[in-house]
Write a structure and sequence with these properties.
Elements lengths: L3 H6 L1 H10 L7 H37 L3 H36 L20 E6 L14 H7 L3 E2 H8 L5 E2 L2 H19 L3 E3 L4 E3 H7 L25 E3 L4 H5 L5 E4 L5 E10 L18 E11 L4 H19 L3 E5 L11 E9 L13 E10 L3 H6 L1 E4 L7 E2 L1 E9 H11 L7 E2 L13 E2 L7 H5 L5
Parallel strand pairs: 4-8, 7-13
Antiparallel strand pairs: 1-10, 2-3, 5-6, 8-9, 9-15, 10-11, 11-12, 12-15, 13-14, 16-17
Helix pairs in contact: 3-4, 5-12, 7-10, 7-12
Length: about 450
């Protein structure tokens, strides 16, 4: 969250951030009015306390001097001041609670270098990697959702039967591929100096607020034991939408030491999101599902080092795709597509050649976001009480948080099934993954099971 002091001193900067991020549902003038009234009441409260203390201190002297009438007047005045002070404090408490609630609705201020734009069409492509020496592809690349079912490594129908739409089974070599990717990614990031975490999967509302998921994105979350329509408490539990939430909140309301920084954690979690949106080819298969595996990198750094670390974090995520030899591009998000919590963000989009999209590369196919690398500056730190002490004798300061996916596993699976596809319908396993799949070089698929396979002509 942005600080009250920043809001008071820079209201037009905040107003511009709201405009550039396309947030027209925030009444900033009302927030400023609440803050102004709260400050006025705090000042009035101080004045009342001072007058009451002075009045009360006179009562004993007046009685000692035999001035009983004046003493009684002082007593009555003290009682009036006490009653007025109680009213002022009650109102100030109400306003402070409202102010805290309103501040949670204000977005991060974009970094001055972020390109201004309305939506994803204004994002800026910074570079492409891996297109200089592409492998030879079949004349017609079969989309992953068809190929996955044909090889019987992905099963959407049975996933929907068990859990509903948006869930799937990975089977056989498909499941091995997901497991291999997770372990491979974690090994890469371990080389880069990350410490492993295996965090809790349920997270409480306070943690969701700390990273900025709440109150803005409650509709996308999976709540445990209640409806999303109901008001939530700090201790209510939700299924983890990204490891960013538990890992960032691990040090919530704590003070780290300067010697501790930078802290670099990585965590694998299954993630759960409702992903309410349009359906069709854009989301068919495992491109947008309600449960997906992901390895997340979270960094806690000194403020003066956060943008150098931001560039390094982007490279940390890219290294996974470089080793898998998958072509990709880097996009810088414009203000309108930046997100609520980010000051600056890059997306890494892998090339999946199976489905031609209008905004895909000239080679055909489409781009799939597999990582968002973000610098939150002190936005999350203020929400979650994340501080560090530069020197033992100095006051604690808010640190900066950054995170990046390393990477979202299902979309990497999509890219592998399509980019490493062969003419005979098999899939070559990327060389970097073979040690994680028992030396397997080619995914040839499995024989389908059940009477439905006979009816579909997949089994004699």
């Amino acid at each position: 969250m942005i600080s009250r002091q920043f809001l008071r001193e820079n209201p037009e900067t905040v107003r511009e951030a709201l405009r550039n991020k396309g947030m027209d549902d925030v009444d900033l003038d009302h927030v400023l009015e609440v803050d102004d009234e709260w400050r006025s009441l705090k000042q009035r409260g101080d004045e009342l306390r001072h007058e009451r203390n002075e009045t009360s201190s006179k009562i004993g002297d007046l009685k000692a001097e035999g001035k009983d009438e004046e003493a009684q007047e002082a007593i009555e005045r003290s009682q009036e001041l006490k009653a007025e002070l109680a009213d002022v404090e009650d109102r100030a408490d109400e306003l402070e609670a409202e102010l805290e609630e309103r501040l949670l609705e204000l977005p991060q201020i974009p970094h001055e270098d972020v390109p201004v734009g309305e939506d994803e069409s204004d994002n800026v492509e910074r570079r492409r990697e891996g297109f200089e020496d592409l492998r030879e592809l079949p004349d017609e690349v079969v989309p992953h959702y068809d190929l996955g079912e044909e090889l019987d490594v992905l099963d959407f129908e049975r996933g929907a039967k068990v859990a509903g739409g948006g869930f799937y089974f990975a089977k056989g070599d498909g499941a091995r591929l997901e497991h291999a990717l997770v372990q491979f990614m974690m090994d890469v990031h371990r080389e880069q100096g990350y410490t492993d975490l295996f965090p809790p999967i349920p997270v409480n509302s306070r943690s969701m607020e700390g990273t900025g998921q709440f109150p803005k994105f409650t509709d996308d979350a999976y709540r445990l034991g209640g409806s999303n329509e109901e008001a939530y408490d700090d201790d209510d539990l939700w299924l983890c939408p990204t490891a960013e939430v538990p890992v960032t909140n691990m040090y919530r309301d704590e003070i780290l030491l300067d010697d501790d920084l930078p802290v670099k954690h990585q965590a694998y979690t299954p993630n759960f999101r409702r992903e309410a949106g349009e359906h069709g080819t854009e989301t068919r298969g495992i491109v947008r599902v309600h449960q997906f595996n992901k390895v997340e990198m979270v960094n806690f750094v000194r403020p003066e080092e956060s943008y150098d670390r931001f560039d390094e974090l982007l490279d940390d995520a890219e290294e996974v795709l470089r080793r898998l030899e998958l072509p990709y591009r880097i996009l810088e998000m414009c203000t309108g597509d930046l997100g609520f919590t980010q000051a600056k963000k890059y997306d890494i989009e892998v090339w999946a050649p199976g489905d031609d999209m209008e905004d895909g590369p000239e080679e055909g196919g489409r781009w799939l976001e597999v990582s968002s690398v973000s610098n939150f500056e002190d936005f999350q730190a203020r929400r979650a009480g994340l501080r560090y002490r530069p020197e033992r004798h100095e006051s604690a300061e808010y640190l900066h948080t950054l995170n990046g996916s390393g990477l979202a596993v299902p979309r990497v699976v999509v890219a592998i099934l399509e980019y490493y596809q062969n003419d005979d319908g098999t899939v070559t396993v990327p060389e970097a993954l073979r040690p994680y799949m028992g030396g397997l070089e080619v995914i040839e698929g499995h024989e389908h099971v059940g009477e439905s396979a006979v009816g579909a002509g997949r089994k004699d």
